[in-house]
Amino acid sequence: MPDPIAFMVPEGVERERADRILAENFPNFSRSRLQKSFDRGEVLLKGEPIKKKHPLEAGDVLSLVLPEPPPTSVEPVDLGIELLYDDEHIAVALKPCGVITHGGPGIEEPTLCHGMMHACGGKLSRASGDLRPGIVHRLDKETTGAIVFAKTDEAFFKMVEAFSGREIRKEYLAIVTRNPAHESGTIKLPIDRHPGNRTRMAVVEGGRPAHTDWKVEEHFGHHHTLIRCFLHTGRTHQIRVHLSHMGHPILGDATYGYQPRPGEKAPPHFFLHAQILGFAHPITGEPLLFEAPLPEAFQAQLERLRGM
Predict the structure, then answer these.
(1) Alpha-carbon distance 81 to 94, whole Å?
(2) What residues make up the domain containing 154?
(3) Is 91 within a domain?
(4) Residue 31's domain is classified under what CATH number?
(5) Could you confirm whether 19 is annotated as catalytic?
(6) Distance, CA of 192 to CA of 47 (rounded, Å)
(7) Which of 14, 33, 64 is the last residue in one of the domains?
(8) Exposed, middle or buried by CB within 10 Å (0-12, 13-18, 19+), for 240?
(9) Nearest Cα to 220, choosing from 138, 302, 102, 106?
(10) Is residue 110 classed as helix, strand or coil in its secondary structure?
(11) Are 41 and 54 in contact (CB under 8 A)?
């Protein structure tokens, strides 16, 4: 049986069910797998087992054992994935545009997990589930940049703790429409499923707390801006939702409000790049910092905007 891990309930939580908190912060685990931990009495608060409906508050510390997953069915596929770092415990990859991070219902195309199984010789942790070997966090299909995979279960659980404890440095570059009124700012708006479209996220009253800081890197006339985003939480589509809500959707992101100007050709994808990823090595504690170079398409788009 895996060793128990410690999990601190993040800020912004007020008397929320334990099963929902865990599902939100351990997205790689299905609710049925998490339910097994409750059923076995392996979710503890102050040393006592709790039920899934137990209300939790920010700062509560749980001790829990997550059930072991079945062997992965993800086969290695050579997708030409480039690694920024690789050792016996973790690997940091450059995710290309157009590749889904992991599989799920109805997904038949090769995913980043398939590519990483090839790049790492099949040595990825199975703790994150059958279709998600090595997955600690995810990037959207069209988002590019640095992403870390766990190769051992020990590294996986340590990285999960680091992400849930907000101990990860994450910086993204985004090309957005129009010029913001200010050169920097902070967005603290809750995010949850869009009430009218369950495939989208939205700023929703009573949603999960979400915090994004941003600053302008470069202006391109009056119509486009390069923005650096600093992520303090990791909600689904967080940067895309926050920037759209601010009135500056990401160039090419039609899902969240981008519309081409008259005479402007819509790009084939949006431009969001996970440039900086920093964390302590899950085993050695060594501080690690990675900078993912801009993809050619992103760099070419910047050059086009500079020439306009």
Answers:
(1) 7
(2) 82-165
(3) yes
(4) 3.10.290.10
(5) no
(6) 32
(7) 64
(8) buried
(9) 302
(10) coil
(11) no
Q: Is residue 239 part of a domain?
A: yes
Structural Rg of the chain based on CA atoms: 20
Nearest CA to 134 out of 88, 171, 166 is that of 88
Coil/strand/helix, residue 196 = coil
pTM over 0.85: no
Last residue of a domain, one of 165, 187, 214: 165
Domain CATH number, residue 206: 3.30.2350.10
What's the CA gap between 170 and 75, in Å, rounded? 29
Cβ proximity of 137 and 95 under 8 Å: no
CA dihedral 172, 174, 178, 181 (to 10 degrees): 0
Does the pLDDT at position 27 exceed 80?
no
Taking residue 251's Cβ as centre, other Cβ atoms within 10 Å add up to 25
Provide CB contacts within 8 A for 62, sequence distance 6+.
Answer: 6, 7, 8, 9, 18, 22, 43, 44, 45, 50, 56
Cα 129 to Cα 139: distance, rounded to the nearest angstrom: 17
Answer yes or no: is pLDDT of 227 > 60: yes
- C-alpha angle with apex 296: 292 to 301, nearest 5 degrees? 110
Look at residue 1 and tell me whether its pLDDT is greater than 60: no
What amino acid is encoded at 289 in this protein? L
Residue with token string 């891990």? 5
The contacts of residue 228 (CB under 8 Å, 6+ apart) are: 171, 172, 173, 214, 215, 216, 217, 275
pLDDT digits (tens, 9 = 90+) for 265-291: 999 999 999 999 999 999 999 999 999
**274: its two tokens:** 């996970």
Query: Among 9-13, 29-33, 89-93, 271-275, where is mean pLDDT lowest?
Result: 29-33
User: Of 212, 247, 235, which Cα lies nearest the Cα of 138?
Assistant: 235
Residue 193, both tokens: 């499923």
Q: Residue 268, SS3?
A: coil
Query: Catalytic pick from 39, 86, 87, 140?
Result: 140
